[in-house]
Recover the amino acids of this structure.
């Protein structure tokens, strides 16, 4: 099983990034997927959820209206579109499917 995140980087406040998580080794289309993040010195928090077929999504209050989770079950990928980024969005972002975690991708929002 592998979950590999990509798309992180350094962006200015107000900017956008699109994270991608490539899944392999399990029945991706049968699993709800989640994005989490962990900032330095803070606990890991749930950012976004998407159901197995993509018909249901949920977001943390702090990102609602700015972030969008989506998935492509043909490509075994889940995405997180992040707009209007703020310095407080700086964290390592992880995707999770079932009990499986990716290794994370760093997002830094700074001028």
């Amino acid at each position: 099983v592998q979950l590999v995140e990509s798309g992180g980087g350094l962006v200015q406040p107000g900017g956008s990034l699109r994270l991608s998580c490539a899944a392999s080794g399990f029945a991706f289309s049968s699993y709800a997927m989640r994005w989490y993040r962990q900032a330095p010195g803070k606990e890991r928090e749930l950012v976004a959820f998407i159901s197995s077929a993509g018909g249901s999504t949920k977001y943390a209050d702090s990102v609602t209206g700015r972030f969008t989770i989506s998935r492509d079950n043909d490509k075994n990928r889940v995405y997180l579109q992040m707009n209007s980024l703020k310095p407080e969005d700086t964290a390592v972002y992880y995707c999770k499917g079932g009990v499986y975690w990716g290794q994370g991708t760093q997002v830094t929002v700074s001028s």
